[in-house]
Amino acid sequence: MDHAGRPIVAVTGIGLVTPLGFGVAQNWAALLAGTSGIRRITRFPTDHLRTTIAGTVDLPEEAEGAPLTATPRVMRMAVMAAEEALAESGLGADGAFPGPLMLGMPPVEVEWPHRFELARRLAPAAVAYPDLTEAATGWTALYETAAFASVGEHLAARFGTRGSPIAVTTACATGASAIQLGVEAIQRGETQAALAIGADGTVQPEALIRFSLLSALSTRNEDPTAASRPFEKTRGGFVMSEGAACLVLESLSHARARGARILGVVRGAGEKSDSFHRTRSNPNGSAVIQAMRNAIADAGLTPDDISYVNAHGTGTPENDKMENLAMRAVFGEQAPPISSNKSMIGHTLSAAGAIEAAFSLLAIRDQMLPPTINHDEPDPAITLDVVPNVARAAKVTHVMSNSFGFGGQNVCLVLSGEPG
């Protein structure tokens, strides 16, 4: 039991898909090498768009066919990550996972390929909403793609999870929220295990245009690999990306009883919403500060116990400055090193919290801090050790992973090595 008398939650399997590659080994090696996965978008035309780069994942089945839309893309990446995590864990090999599915994913919507198909069905008639409804009638594939909770239901059926799957969307904190839900279900004694997945595949025209209209995206198109620049003076916005991560969570006693290899534990979670603005966090950092403090307190630790912080670190001028402010408020002058995986993989949105939690566990496993690349010109306003450009060997005991979402939805996780 932990300091609060709750079951300790172990991680016994990790699966990863990012622009850096497929699988934990490939991703972690590339991350420590400081490799960028950002590239020019070829999935759809980018003429007249201000941003033409992203962290895309090229799936094997797309080599000979049309690109997948977001929902089947999320499904495919989630399956790949879960299969790797379950194989490592040894749970659910018989297609019957002994716990619930907690899925973090983006909102489902009808995308432009669907709309073009509707237009073809209607041509040359004038298009009004009733006409679109009539044209979509009987189009079963469209309904199944856009139906509420369809991804979670398909994944639950595939992996044999128990009970109704829980699908959550908390903006850029979504992946961390999925992990938190799984952890808390185990801590409450409702289950001995949970499957936590964060996945996003929304590098598509409409999403790109929306973020561009918010002036949130980097427009450093001439050199994609140098575009994501968290904490650096010339940073100008984040780079959209996609991917998936899966953590197999189970009570430490359950994992040890079956002889499982313990990859680490999720020691604490903290959340706090500020309700300040639909897209912006409060620049005073109050909710972010409290989320960090809540996570440390939930873990039964003090700020001095944190060895490293896996930053939210998007590369937008406002977010990075606010995260620096929050770090100083929580840790004072003795702040631990902090680095941003987004400098290499971009911002994977709904998947980010899960992917970065996975990288945090790997940092503990190998006692290595991944770098923040593209750190050419330090920003005087950023007073932290951001592990610039080169990975670093370090003593890593407890890691805090930060996830700060649009609308002030903030979740922080504390991950640690296996207890003695």
TrEMBL record:
Keywords: Transferase. CDD domains: KAS_I_II (cd00834). The keyword Transferase applies. Pfam families: ketoacyl-synt, Ketoacyl-synt_C. InterPro entries: Beta-ketoacyl_synthase (IPR000794), Ketoacyl_synth_AS (IPR018201), Ketoacyl_synth_C (IPR014031), Ketoacyl_synth_N (IPR014030), PKS_Beta-ketoAc_synthase_dom (IPR020841). Residues 6-417 form the Ketosynthase family 3 (KS3) domain. Pathway: Lipid metabolism; fatty acid biosynthesis. Belongs to the thiolase-like superfamily. Beta-ketoacyl-ACP synthases family. This is Beta-ketoacyl-ACP synthase.
